Protein backbone atom coordinates (compact mmCIF):
# COMPACT_ATOMS: atom_id res chain seq x y z
CA UNK A 1 0.00 0.00 0.00
CA UNK A 2 1.26 3.47 -0.89
CA UNK A 3 1.13 5.88 2.06
CA UNK A 4 2.65 9.01 0.55
CA UNK A 5 3.67 10.58 -2.75
CA UNK A 6 6.31 13.20 -3.49
CA UNK A 7 5.68 15.38 -6.56
CA UNK A 8 8.04 17.86 -8.21
CA UNK A 9 6.20 19.92 -10.84
CA UNK A 10 8.89 21.30 -13.14
CA UNK A 11 8.67 23.45 -16.23
CA UNK A 12 8.87 20.46 -18.56
CA UNK A 13 8.33 17.31 -16.49
CA UNK A 14 6.36 16.43 -13.37
CA UNK A 15 8.41 13.92 -11.39
CA UNK A 16 6.83 11.56 -8.86
CA UNK A 17 8.38 9.40 -6.13
CA UNK A 18 6.76 6.95 -3.72
CA UNK A 19 7.51 3.87 -1.65
CA UNK A 20 5.59 0.64 -2.17
CA UNK A 21 4.86 -1.87 0.62
CA UNK A 22 8.37 -3.30 0.43
CA UNK A 23 9.82 0.21 0.80
CA UNK A 24 11.11 -0.03 -2.76
CA UNK A 25 11.45 3.49 -4.18
CA UNK A 26 9.37 3.95 -7.33
CA UNK A 27 9.87 6.83 -9.77
CA UNK A 28 7.88 8.03 -12.77
CA UNK A 29 7.15 11.22 -14.65
CA UNK A 30 4.51 12.97 -16.74
CA UNK A 31 4.74 15.97 -19.07
CA UNK A 32 3.93 19.15 -17.14
CA UNK A 33 1.92 20.30 -20.15
CA UNK A 34 -0.74 17.74 -19.17
CA UNK A 35 -1.37 18.18 -15.44
CA UNK A 36 -4.81 16.61 -15.82
CA UNK A 37 -3.04 13.32 -16.46
CA UNK A 38 -1.09 13.79 -13.24
CA UNK A 39 -4.31 14.52 -11.35
CA UNK A 40 -5.98 11.43 -12.81
CA UNK A 41 -3.05 9.27 -11.69
CA UNK A 42 -3.25 10.66 -8.15
CA UNK A 43 -7.00 10.01 -8.11
CA UNK A 44 -6.30 6.29 -8.51
CA UNK A 45 -5.14 6.27 -4.87
CA UNK A 46 -7.30 6.62 -1.76
CA UNK A 47 -8.33 10.15 -0.83
CA UNK A 48 -6.31 10.36 2.41
CA UNK A 49 -2.92 9.63 0.81
CA UNK A 50 -0.25 12.10 1.93
CA UNK A 51 1.21 14.34 -0.79
CA UNK A 52 4.38 16.44 -0.59
CA UNK A 53 4.40 18.98 -3.42
CA UNK A 54 7.23 21.14 -4.76
CA UNK A 55 8.45 22.73 -8.00
CA UNK A 56 7.89 25.88 -10.03
CA UNK A 57 4.48 24.81 -11.33
CA UNK A 58 3.20 23.33 -8.06
CA UNK A 59 0.49 25.99 -7.74
CA UNK A 60 -0.91 24.97 -11.11
CA UNK A 61 -1.18 21.35 -10.04
CA UNK A 62 -2.86 22.41 -6.79
CA UNK A 63 -5.79 23.77 -8.83
CA UNK A 64 -6.42 20.18 -9.95
CA UNK A 65 -6.24 18.91 -6.37
CA UNK A 66 -8.54 21.35 -4.53
CA UNK A 67 -10.49 18.54 -2.85
CA UNK A 68 -7.37 16.82 -1.54
CA UNK A 69 -6.92 17.51 2.20
CA UNK A 70 -3.52 15.91 2.89
CA UNK A 71 -1.41 18.12 0.69
CA UNK A 72 1.44 20.42 1.66
CA UNK A 73 3.99 22.48 -0.24
CA UNK A 74 7.77 22.47 0.24
CA UNK A 75 10.26 25.09 -0.93
CA UNK A 76 11.86 23.61 -4.04
CA UNK A 77 15.46 24.12 -2.92
CA UNK A 78 14.81 22.44 0.44
CA UNK A 79 13.10 19.46 -1.17
CA UNK A 80 15.86 19.06 -3.77
CA UNK A 81 18.70 19.11 -1.24
CA UNK A 82 16.88 16.59 0.99
CA UNK A 83 16.52 14.32 -2.01
CA UNK A 84 20.18 14.73 -2.97
CA UNK A 85 21.35 13.77 0.51
CA UNK A 86 19.17 10.65 0.43
CA UNK A 87 20.47 9.72 -3.04
CA UNK A 88 24.11 10.28 -2.10
CA UNK A 89 23.73 7.89 0.81
CA UNK A 90 21.88 5.37 -1.34
CA UNK A 91 24.57 5.55 -4.03
CA UNK A 92 27.35 5.04 -1.46
CA UNK A 93 28.78 8.55 -1.70
CA UNK A 94 30.26 9.53 1.67
CA UNK A 95 31.09 13.23 1.77
CA UNK A 96 29.44 15.97 3.83
CA UNK A 97 30.33 19.00 1.73
CA UNK A 98 29.92 19.75 -1.96
CA UNK A 99 28.50 21.95 -4.67
CA UNK A 100 25.07 20.85 -5.93
CA UNK A 101 24.30 21.87 -9.52
CA UNK A 102 20.68 21.36 -10.52
CA UNK A 103 20.24 21.43 -14.31
CA UNK A 104 16.57 21.91 -15.08
CA UNK A 105 15.11 24.37 -17.57
CA UNK A 106 17.76 26.72 -16.19
CA UNK A 107 20.48 25.90 -13.67
CA UNK A 108 20.68 26.56 -9.93
CA UNK A 109 23.85 26.01 -7.90
CA UNK A 110 23.98 25.37 -4.14
CA UNK A 111 26.60 24.90 -1.48
CA UNK A 112 25.98 21.93 0.84
CA UNK A 113 27.77 21.76 4.19
CA UNK A 114 26.38 19.05 6.44
CA UNK A 115 22.75 19.95 7.12
CA UNK A 116 23.13 23.52 5.85
CA UNK A 117 22.68 24.59 2.26
CA UNK A 118 22.50 27.90 0.44
CA UNK A 119 22.00 28.94 -3.17
CA UNK A 120 25.23 30.56 -4.35
CA UNK A 121 24.78 30.97 -8.12
CA UNK A 122 22.66 30.19 -11.14
CA UNK A 123 22.37 30.69 -14.88
CA UNK A 124 19.67 30.74 -17.53
CA UNK A 125 21.69 28.14 -19.44
CA UNK A 126 20.11 24.72 -18.94
CA UNK A 127 17.77 22.18 -20.46
CA UNK A 128 15.61 24.92 -21.93
CA UNK A 129 18.68 26.25 -23.75
CA UNK A 130 19.47 22.80 -25.09
CA UNK A 131 15.94 22.32 -26.43
CA UNK A 132 15.56 25.89 -27.70
CA UNK A 133 18.87 26.21 -29.52
CA UNK A 134 18.50 22.73 -30.99
CA UNK A 135 15.05 23.57 -32.34
CA UNK A 136 16.16 26.92 -33.78
CA UNK A 137 19.26 25.51 -35.46
CA UNK A 138 18.06 22.11 -36.64
CA UNK A 139 14.28 21.98 -36.30
CA UNK A 140 14.65 19.09 -33.85
CA UNK A 141 12.94 19.64 -30.50
CA UNK A 142 12.48 16.12 -29.09
CA UNK A 143 14.91 15.61 -26.21
CA UNK A 144 15.55 11.92 -26.93
CA UNK A 145 16.34 12.64 -30.59
CA UNK A 146 18.67 15.50 -29.67
CA UNK A 147 20.62 13.23 -27.34
CA UNK A 148 20.78 10.39 -29.87
CA UNK A 149 21.98 12.52 -32.79
CA UNK A 150 24.44 14.57 -30.74
CA UNK A 151 26.19 11.37 -29.65
CA UNK A 152 27.45 10.82 -33.20
CA UNK A 153 28.28 14.47 -33.93
CA UNK A 154 31.61 16.31 -33.75
CA UNK A 155 32.39 19.75 -32.35
CA UNK A 156 35.85 19.93 -33.94
CA UNK A 157 34.91 22.15 -36.90
CA UNK A 158 32.29 24.27 -35.16
CA UNK A 159 33.92 25.25 -31.85
CA UNK A 160 37.16 27.22 -31.74
CA UNK A 161 39.83 25.89 -29.39
CA UNK A 162 42.54 27.89 -27.66
CA UNK A 163 45.09 26.09 -29.84
CA UNK A 164 43.24 27.30 -32.98
CA UNK A 165 43.84 30.91 -31.97
CA UNK A 166 47.57 30.45 -31.39
CA UNK A 167 48.23 28.52 -34.63
CA UNK A 168 50.82 26.15 -33.22
CA UNK A 169 52.46 28.67 -30.90
CA UNK A 170 52.73 27.99 -27.20
CA UNK A 171 49.42 28.65 -25.49
CA UNK A 172 49.19 30.44 -22.12
CA UNK A 173 46.49 27.99 -21.00
CA UNK A 174 45.44 24.46 -21.97
CA UNK A 175 45.17 24.48 -25.78
CA UNK A 176 42.44 21.85 -25.71
CA UNK A 177 40.01 24.18 -23.94
CA UNK A 178 37.20 25.81 -25.90
CA UNK A 179 38.06 29.40 -26.74
CA UNK A 180 34.70 30.13 -28.36
CA UNK A 181 31.61 27.94 -28.59
CA UNK A 182 30.49 28.01 -32.25
CA UNK A 183 33.54 30.21 -32.91
CA UNK A 184 34.43 28.38 -36.14
CA UNK A 185 30.86 28.28 -37.42
CA UNK A 186 31.35 31.45 -39.46
CA UNK A 187 33.86 29.72 -41.73
CA UNK A 188 31.03 27.67 -43.24
CA UNK A 189 27.28 28.40 -43.08
CA UNK A 190 25.30 26.30 -40.62
CA UNK A 191 23.27 24.98 -43.54
CA UNK A 192 26.40 23.09 -44.62
CA UNK A 193 26.82 21.49 -41.21
CA UNK A 194 25.30 18.19 -40.23
CA UNK A 195 22.55 18.20 -37.63
CA UNK A 196 24.65 15.80 -35.59
CA UNK A 197 27.57 18.26 -35.43
CA UNK A 198 25.32 21.20 -34.55
CA UNK A 199 23.57 19.28 -31.78
CA UNK A 200 26.87 18.04 -30.39
CA UNK A 201 28.08 21.64 -30.26
CA UNK A 202 24.92 22.84 -28.50
CA UNK A 203 25.46 20.13 -25.89
CA UNK A 204 29.05 21.34 -25.57
CA UNK A 205 28.01 24.94 -25.00
CA UNK A 206 25.45 24.00 -22.34
CA UNK A 207 27.79 21.58 -20.60
CA UNK A 208 30.83 23.86 -20.54
CA UNK A 209 28.97 26.94 -19.31
CA UNK A 210 27.36 24.99 -16.47
CA UNK A 211 30.52 23.13 -15.46
CA UNK A 212 32.65 26.30 -15.64
CA UNK A 213 30.30 28.15 -13.29
CA UNK A 214 30.10 25.12 -10.99
CA UNK A 215 33.89 24.84 -10.84
CA UNK A 216 34.21 28.53 -10.01
CA UNK A 217 31.73 28.02 -7.16
CA UNK A 218 33.69 24.97 -5.94
CA UNK A 219 36.88 27.04 -5.98
CA UNK A 220 35.22 29.83 -4.00
CA UNK A 221 33.77 27.39 -1.47
CA UNK A 222 36.97 25.30 -1.36
CA UNK A 223 35.06 22.11 -2.16
CA UNK A 224 36.19 19.06 -4.11
CA UNK A 225 32.91 17.41 -5.11
CA UNK A 226 30.36 18.79 -7.56
CA UNK A 227 27.09 16.86 -7.66
CA UNK A 228 25.29 17.35 -10.98
CA UNK A 229 21.55 16.63 -10.95
CA UNK A 230 18.46 17.43 -13.01
CA UNK A 231 16.27 15.97 -15.74
CA UNK A 232 18.51 17.40 -18.48
CA UNK A 233 21.11 14.77 -17.51
CA UNK A 234 18.69 11.83 -17.57
CA UNK A 235 19.97 9.28 -20.11
CA UNK A 236 22.01 12.10 -21.67
CA UNK A 237 25.42 10.46 -21.81
CA UNK A 238 26.94 13.06 -24.20
CA UNK A 239 26.19 15.90 -21.77
CA UNK A 240 27.40 13.90 -18.78
CA UNK A 241 30.68 13.19 -20.60
CA UNK A 242 31.21 16.87 -21.44
CA UNK A 243 30.51 18.01 -17.89
CA UNK A 244 32.43 15.16 -16.29
CA UNK A 245 35.59 15.55 -18.39
CA UNK A 246 35.67 19.34 -18.03
CA UNK A 247 35.18 19.11 -14.26
CA UNK A 248 38.00 16.58 -13.94
CA UNK A 249 40.19 18.73 -16.16
CA UNK A 250 39.82 21.48 -13.59
CA UNK A 251 40.76 19.14 -10.72
CA UNK A 252 37.30 18.72 -9.23
CA UNK A 253 35.36 15.48 -8.71
CA UNK A 254 32.07 15.21 -10.64
CA UNK A 255 29.27 13.11 -9.16
CA UNK A 256 26.25 11.99 -11.18
CA UNK A 257 23.39 10.46 -9.22
CA UNK A 258 21.66 7.36 -10.54
CA UNK A 259 18.21 8.97 -10.63
CA UNK A 260 19.43 12.48 -11.28
CA UNK A 261 16.11 14.04 -12.27
CA UNK A 262 14.13 13.02 -9.20
CA UNK A 263 15.83 14.74 -6.26
CA UNK A 264 12.98 17.22 -5.70
CA UNK A 265 10.29 14.54 -5.82
CA UNK A 266 12.27 12.30 -3.45
CA UNK A 267 12.78 15.16 -1.01
CA UNK A 268 9.06 15.98 -1.11
CA UNK A 269 8.28 12.33 -0.43
CA UNK A 270 10.70 12.08 2.49
CA UNK A 271 9.10 15.09 4.16
CA UNK A 272 5.95 13.05 4.71
CA UNK A 273 7.92 10.35 6.51
CA UNK A 274 9.77 12.94 8.58
CA UNK A 275 6.48 14.13 9.97
CA UNK A 276 6.71 17.60 8.38
From TrEMBL:
GO terms for biological process: coenzyme A biosynthetic process. It is an enzyme of class 2 (transferase). GO terms for cellular component: cytosol. Gene3D superfamilies: 3.30.420.40. It comes from the Bacteria. GO terms for molecular function: ATP binding; pantothenate kinase activity. The keyword Ribonucleoprotein does not apply. Keywords: ATP-binding, Coenzyme A biosynthesis, Cytoplasm, Kinase, Nucleotide-binding, Transferase. Its EC number is 2.7.1.33. PANTHER family: 4'-PHOSPHOPANTETHEINE PHOSPHATASE (PTHR12280:SF20), PANTOTHENATE KINASE (PTHR12280). This is Type II pantothenate kinase. It comes from Paenisporosarcina quisquiliarum. The lineage of its organism: Bacteria, Bacillati, Bacillota, Bacilli, Bacillales.
Amino acid sequence: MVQAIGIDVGGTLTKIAYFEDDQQLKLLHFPSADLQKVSDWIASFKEDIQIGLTGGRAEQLKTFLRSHKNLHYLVEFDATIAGVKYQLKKDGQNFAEGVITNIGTGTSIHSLKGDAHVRIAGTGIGGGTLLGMSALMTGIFEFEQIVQLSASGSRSEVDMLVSDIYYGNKTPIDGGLTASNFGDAGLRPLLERSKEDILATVQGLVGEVISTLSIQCADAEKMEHIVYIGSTLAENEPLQKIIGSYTKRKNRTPVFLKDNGYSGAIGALLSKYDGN
